[in-house]
Amino acid sequence: MALSRRFIDVILNDAMQRDITTARRVTLLQILWNERYLTRAQLIVRTEYRLGRKCFGTSAWEDTFYRDMCVVKQAFQAAGYVLEYSRDRKNKGYYFKGQPALSPEFSQMVKASAEEVDQRQIDIYQRLSTADRFRQGCSVSDSQNLSRNIFGL
Asked: What is each CA distance from 36 to 63, 91, 97, in whole angstroms?
């Protein structure tokens, strides 16, 4: 009898709460599953956004990232995917051979989000001064940080 994915998710989520190494590796795996051609710097920024600044440490962060990526590559390889790195200027970063830049699910989500854009709202923002746009961006960012702190989002 195979274990249900729900059982495994509960255990994995608990491990991620208790162990920053597991949290980093699962986060890297999730990011790379959806997006390709991300460099080390981009992966670190995205991971730190989810887990907090300095989640890779302060002194040996390059070694930490390298070790994490070795395990992530092994996980993908176990599932039949080969994670490679492109140094091409146009498409630089980690990718899966033969796979599009975005996963089909992520691509659909981006498409659906773009369809929700209200052109009238864009026109209003374009008429705002640079200072007003900056204030709008800060207020959204402050609201998101407040929500994270209060609600743990």
From this structure: 22, 9, 10
Give the total residue count for the chain.
153
Q: Which residues contact 100 (CB under 8 A, 6 or more apart)?
A: 36, 107
Find all residues with CB under 8 Å of 69, minimum gap 6, and list them: 28, 94
Distance of alpha carbon 72 from alpha carbon 15, whole angstroms: 16
Using DSSP's 3-state secondary structure scheme, residue 81 falls into coil
User: Can you give the pTM of this predicted structure?
Assistant: 0.66
Spatial CA neighbour of 76 closest among 58, 61, 97: 97
Mind listing the pLDDT tens digit for each residue in 70-91?
Answer: 999 999 999 999 999 999 888 8
* Crossing angle of the two packed helices 20-34 and 5-18, in degrees rounded to 10: 120
Q: Check if the beta carbon of residue 64 is closer than 8 Å to that of residue 57.
A: yes
**Tell me: the pLDDT tens digits for 19-32?**
999 999 999 999 99
Q: Which residues contact 128 (CB under 8 A, 6 or more apart)?
A: 136
